[in-house]
Amino acid sequence: MSERTPTAPTSQIPVACRPGFADRLAPPYLAVIFTSQRRGRDEAYDATAAAMARLAAKQPGYLGAESARGADGLGITVSYWQDDASVAAWRQELRHASVRELGRERFYSHYELRVARVERAYGWDEEDGIADPMGPAGAGGTSRAAGDGICSGGST
Amino acid sequence: MSERTPTAPTSQIPVACRPGFADRLAPPYLAVIFTSQRRGRDEAYDATAAAMARLAAKQPGYLGAESARGADGLGITVSYWQDDASVAAWRQELRHASVRELGRERFYSHYELRVARVERAYGWDEEDGIADPMGPAGAGGTSRAAGDGICSGGST
């Protein structure tokens, strides 16, 4: 991993304060947005998706992921990464992962994949009270600031 | 909208080649990633979500959206925008939208909202054949290039 040049603060350790959320991450970091349409039911899918998730979580620079799929088979998985180098390393890992071809050969009819740089992030929780999710960065509330990343409560 | 300074090519007209996908968009553009946990069943949710979607679609610079929610109530909606100005205008619109407070008061227990700049985008379809979704931009395949945006087929 000599090519990796971490730039995010050390507080960027994934702290899953809430199940299903990759919260408490301080921008900037990268998001890999994977939107996919499943072809239909395939009993191998769940195990394969779990294997992919485990593989991603072991990668350097992995910060977390969020995933949802509706009854119509359309799903969105967003994985979060520390920097370009960690995304590039994940790409290389995928090239050697058999699970990747399974996605094309068996699971998906179509997918779109986007690599995006997260510039601002905001969170809101019913226990935290109101915050402006679209307010300017640094305006307070629960906008994510550098050095954030400490889970102040909630389930793990 | 005097503040708007469109930078994306005119080909950035939403062309929904496939239901549920905001595909055929050429980077750079912005992605607003909204991950939310619903509190429970609320018969007002569907109508409100539809109203929000219609409101977004009427905004200048709106390019499309993708959304999925699982049976556990965790959902991800990614809306795509032409530039920072169009995201800022959407924020202003939300400040006057009653549907926004409904989300906090009735529908969600927690949400995370991220504004990210899409730098690379790739698509794969079972009819198009294999493409490297994580390949370098401009490497061919079905990576999105400036001037893309023309739907070459598929349902609308």
Automatic annotation (TrEMBL), chains A, B:
It holds the Pfam family ABM. Residues 29-94 form the ABM domain. InterPro entries: ABM_dom (IPR007138), Dimeric_a/b-barrel (IPR011008), Jasmonate_Hydroxylase-like (IPR052936). Residues 134-156 are annotated as: Disordered. Gene3D superfamilies: 3.30.70.100. PANTHER family: ABM DOMAIN-CONTAINING PROTEIN (PTHR37811:SF2), BLL5343 PROTEIN (PTHR37811). This is ABM domain-containing protein.
